[in-house]
Amino acid sequence: MLDPLSDCSPLISAASSGKLRLVRLLVDGGAEVNGRNPKGETALLAACKALRGEPAGPETIKLLTYLLQNKADPNAQDRAGRTALMYACMERAGAQVAATLLAAGADPSMEDYSGASALVYAINAQHQPTLKVLMDACQVRGRDIIIIATEVGVHGGPVTRRYLNVLPSPNTSPVSCMSPSDIVLKTGSPNSPEGENIFNFRATSE
Question: ANK repeat ranges (predicted)?
Answer without folding.
Answer: 6-38, 80-113
